[in-house]
């Protein structure tokens, strides 16, 4: 199963995609450091800005 298939098609995600606030794109972990911003989106909690922890161990 590809990583993008693991993302749930939630209501908040669908609404945010439809509004043009986000776009889907497959990225590599290395590309996260180049992102303008990183957010966690949840229908219950809404949009939560997060920061990349570069000291986080690689979990395989």
Automatic annotation (TrEMBL):
User: According to the lineage, what is the superkingdom?
Assistant: Bacteria
InterPro entries recorded for this chain? Aminotransferase-like, BCAT-like_C
User: What name goes with this protein?
Assistant: Uncharacterized protein
